[in-house]
UniProtKB/TrEMBL annotation:
PROSITE patterns: ABC_TRANSPORTER_1 (PS00211), ABC_TRANSPORTER_2 (PS50893). One of its GO terms (molecular function) is ATP hydrolysis activity. The keyword Protease does not apply. The keyword Acyltransferase does not apply. This is Branched-chain amino acid transport ATP-binding protein LivG. GO terms for cellular component: plasma membrane. InterPro entries: AAA+_ATPase, ABC_AA/LPS_Transport, ABC_transporter-like_ATP-bd, ABC_transporter-like_CS, BCA_ABC_TP_C, P-loop_NTPase.
Length: 258
């Protein structure tokens, strides 16, 4: 679905992404791992249109999407979440979800004056859909809670819920487990698997929790120093000498050898 061809992103003399090439298969949950500074989030930001590449190309289902802005990629079904959740803190959880779909009637001044019935009908439909999403994520009891009052893990679930309010084709999840307790992390993992199997979502996941990666992801892609170092199953990656050296550390390498 997504192919990255010899991608570079330089900041002055610093090569954050340095000739990375990879493919994300349609229908997969692909893991992207690597040490801090490996270029993972920069790669996400280039693919998702938040940064323009220095050189290289990104395609989605054969279409060149290199450098397209996030709002155009959103309409093509490419969405991403962030390591730090971006909620509208003073709005309810339900209202946060209802804001996601584009081109709502209430956004038009003309409709606000002359099509109020249509706006009310659309809002009722959006509220029903939001409630279905919250039921799916098992957080319906937070529907009327201010989003700013949620815990970090609950905010991550809300971000995942936003992707369900539109026809997402591929979702990039940036450290979805950061600051999340184990119980909520399992809930997030279950939701990702269900979205993948039941609704055909494709995911690419940046995560440092190798148990989480091992449970969800196949294949797993490893980055180091802006390049793709290795790709394979989680088991193959954990046994790869170059990965153990560059990512897991020499201490674990020596332990594995022993």
């Amino acid at each position: 679905m997504i192919e990255v061809h010899d991608l570079h992103k330089h900041f002055g003399g610093f090569r954050a992404v340095d000739g990375a090439s990879l493919a994300i298969r349609k229908g997969s949950i692909t893991g992207l791992i690597g040490p801090n500074g490996a270029g993972k989030t920069t790669l996400f930001n280039v693919i998702a249109g938040r940064l323009s590449p220095t050189s290289g190309r990104v395609t989605m289902a054969g279409e060149d999407i290199t450098g397209l802005p996030p709002h155009e990629l959103f309409h093509k079904g490419l969405l991403r979440t962030f390591q730090i959740a971006h909620e509208f803190s003073s709005m309810t959880v339900r209202e946060n979800l209802m804001m996601v779909p584009p081109n709502q009637a209430g956004e038009s001044i003309w409709s606000a004056w002359f099509a109020r019935g249509r706006i009310r009908q659309e809002e009722r439909a959006l509220a029903r859909k939001a409630d279905e999403v919250l039921d799916f994520l098992t957080i319906s009891h937070f529907a009327d809670e201010k989003a700013g009052n949620l815990s970090g893990g609950q905010k991550k679930l809300l971000e995942l819920g936003r992707t369900m309010m539109v026809d997402a084709r591929i979702v990039f999840l940036d450290e979805v487990g950061a600051g999340v307790n184990r119980t909520l992390l399992n809930t997030i993992a279950d939701a990702i698997v269900r979205l993948n199997k039941e609704r055909g979502y494709t995911f690419c996941v940046i995560e440092h929790d190798m148990d989480f990666i091992g449970r969800l992801c196949d294949p797993v892609i490893v980055m180091a120093q802006g390049k793709v170092l290795a790709e394979g199953s989680a088991r193959e990656i954990m046994q790869n000498e170059a990965v153990i050296e560059a990512y897991l550390g020499t201490g674990l390498k020596n332990k594995a050898t022993a």
